[in-house]
Every structure is written in structure tokens, then in C-alpha cells.
Amino acid sequence: QVQLVETGGGLVQAWGSLRLSCVASGGTFGVYPMGWFRQVPGQEREFVAAMQRSGGTTYAPSVRGRFTGSRYNAKNIMYLQMDSLKPEDTAVYYCARSRTTAVATTKQWYDQWGQGTQVTVSS
Questions:
Q1: What is the rounded distance in angstroms from the CA atom of residue 57 to the CA atom of residue 40?
Q2: What is the mean pLDDT of residues 63-81?
Q3: Which of 24, 27, 48, 116 could disulfide-pair with 36, CB 3.0 to 4.6 Å?
């Protein structure tokens, strides 16, 4: 199993930026697609971005053009650069490893999750 640890969350004003990191250990990071999800209390965990092994990224419509994903397989790390943040981006952000080699945008296809990092955007 792979262990995932997210860092980089915090409090930021609207239109500000944050960069989240996800470090993997104990498993095969570079073999599978990786994803970012977020969750607000009382709501379903929602898809944010999914990165292919090569780094190509699929984004949710709500973040496309503002968020940028990247991964460095040799270093077992991936990032989510979040720009032009909005209050509605406030959530706990999770990184996850897919259990399929295909890029997936639903949480059911991910079987390894980090503990999450809180992002709060003030208006």
C-alpha cells in the first residue's frame, strides 16, 4: 500500500493562491493515475483533478483555468497549484491513488487516500 500525505493548505483571501503537495511513500507512485478531491462537511467528496502517469491532467469544470496539477514520479510527489481562489473553494483537499490505470473522475475508482489538508478562502 502507498501512504499519501498532503500539505500546503491554509487560510487565504479570495483571488489568492496556494500550492498543495502530496508525497507518496511505500508503494508504486508512478504506475497509476493520481487524483485530487475535496470535501465540505455534510457534502459528498467531489472530484477536482486527475493526473495521468505522464502528467496530463483532467480538471473539474469549476476549477479549470484556475488550478494546475503536476507530478514528479521520480520524486513520488505531486502538486496542485491553486490560483484565483474563491470562497467556494473552501474544503478539505485530499490526494488519492487510482486503482485503475485509466484516468477516473469519481471517488469510487480511488483506493488510497491521504488524510487531507484544509483550505479556507475568505471573502
A1: 23
A2: 95
A3: 48
Cα 89 to Cα 18: distance, rounded to the nearest angstrom: 11
Q: What is the pLDDT of residues 108-122, one digit of tens each?
A: 999 999 999 999 999
Query: Can you tell me the distance from the alpha carbon of 33 to that of 54, in angstroms, rounded to the nearest whole number?
Result: 9
Q: Hey, what amino acid is at 89?
A: D
Integer distance in angstroms from the first to the last C-alpha of the chain?
39
pLDDT tens column, 17-42: 999 999 999 877 788 899 999 999 99
C-alpha cell at 107: 471517488
What span, in angstroms and rounded, lies between the C-alpha atoms of 15 and 84?
Answer: 4
Give the three-state DSSP class for 52: coil
Residue 27 near residue 45, CB atoms below 8 Å = no
Whole-angstrom Cα distance, residue 20 to residue 25? 17
In total, the chain counts a number of residues equal to 123
